[in-house]
Amino acid sequence: MEKDAASQFAYALDINAIREAVVAETFSVNVGRRALILISPYPFLIIGEIISVTSDYLVIKAEVTNVAEFDDEVFRVHIDDIEVFYIEINGKKIPDIRDVKL
Description:
CATH architecture: Roll
Low-confidence stretches: none
Mean pLDDT: 87
Number of strands: 5
Strand content: 35-45%
Largest sheet: 5 strands, antiparallel
CATH topology: SH3 type barrels
Shape: elongated
Radius of gyration: 17 Å
Strand order of the largest sheet: 4-3-2-1-5
Number of domains: 1
Structural class: alpha+beta
Order of helices and strands: HHEEEEE
CATH class: Mainly Beta
């Protein structure tokens, strides 16, 4: 039984490879901007400046994390571990979460 063209095309695509390429490219074109990322190995938050993207790794200089001892460190994060991200563009800023009064 022959598969239709759409089915054959769907089998040829690796959605994870596409996602990785798009996310890596998005970070690459925004080097020097601030970003917020949540990574999956632990619900871990990093807010900082995008330093570079090498292959499938993001290098980010943390300003603040959810573990104070890691603030101001440089992290090398695998693109696949990034669950959610936001990059400051068009004047929309990431708020300073360190100066929140409860």
